[in-house]
Sequence to fold (220 residues):
Amino acid sequence: MSRPLKLFAFLIYSKGGTVDITVHEVKNNGHLKELDRASGGDWGGTSVDMAFKQALADIVTEGMIEGYCHKYTGDYIELLRDFEIKKRKCGQGNDSNHLITLKVPVTFTEECAETMAKDLTTLTNESRFNNHFYWKSDKVRIDMPTFEGFFQPACIGIINHVKELFKSPKVKGVKKILMVGGFSESPLLQDAIRKAFPDCQVIVPQEAGLAVLRGAVVFG
Fold:
């Protein structure tokens, strides 16, 4: 009789911004046995969004961002939507010299000049993002190390939590990590997990963002 296969299962929900981590053992009859109860934290995809928003606030102040959000809600959503697209592609063969280009609404540039009495380039040069953000017309270019830095709080939080779980006798022998949920589709997160746990096989199903939904439908 074959030995049961232990799977370390990641359930990552980027919409809510949380990460749930469970440990299961797959029995020979195909049933699952929970080895450790679900645990996690606020390390989902929205934490990357928050890091980007904080970077903008560091440049133009939180007050300007808040005012712009209420005055030009549609344009603000478009800016974040373009960031979301670039976020999902980050890590796909980009080198450290690569620049990520985002579309910036004209209203953002105009509101900044009116509210701050300075242009975006001047404000950036006065901030910690000097030589990391480059504004030109209706675009901003961000260097790759800075853009990847937006992912660091989430990646570090997930990795540290998993390392703590690995210290438990309950997960002894676990050699596989299953990643599902929207944030699991991030090549950068996948690479961080593989580097942090080189002795484990990291499994990411196709369309990982729909895996949880499909499982719920099958279970139902």
